[in-house]
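User: Quick sanity check before I run a bigger batch. Here is a single chain. Can you write out its predicted 3D structure?
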Amino acid sequence: VTEAFNFVDPVVENYDGSMKLLWEGAALAVLVVFLFLRDWRATLVSATALPLSVIPAFWIMDLMGFSINVVTLLSLSLVVGILVDDAIVEIENIVRHLRMGKSPLDAARDAADEIGLAVIATSFTLIAVFLPTAFMSGVPGKFFVQFGWTAAIAVFWSLVVARMLTPMMAAYLLKVPKKDHGEASWLKHYMRVVQWCLRHRWTTILVTVVFSVLALAPVFL
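Assistant: Done. Predicted structure follows.
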């Protein structure tokens, strides 16, 4: 028997590539959170949103008859960074309230109430972006139905985690800072660039327009 072609190996390679991308995205997302928050407790609370958003998404996918395939893994790979967004916003605001001298429980309660509407609006905006792809018609729609639903479900569960679990974990895991949490050294250079842009608004706008035109030029040429 001579094998003419094989559909199995490409599928396995795509699966392995998608899983590798998913793991790399999750690791980089957690690393970025740590570089900005510079607190392992806050990073742990934020990073918990990743598995606790993906695992319930798998459950809903099973109820809808979706499988773990290249399309669903690609969808999760694209939203893996988004899944920690709500938790980052929540935990950053909680830390800000902690620096005001509040206890962890009061800080978690006040911070969650303060930005609750903004976090909900952000998540539903992302759902509104991904979900319409699930209703595409024709052959592409057969593929993107799983893509759109998987992304929307994962983002929804990240909202649930951010609104319910993140404040609870922060109230019990975070500690009142014993010393002033100074700004990162790289932030000073960034603020200089921002201040220059604010002082030279028309120059900034002109440079932005030029770069936009150059970026779109290959499409029309």
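DSSP finds nine helices and no strands in the chain.

User: Great, the batch can go ahead then.
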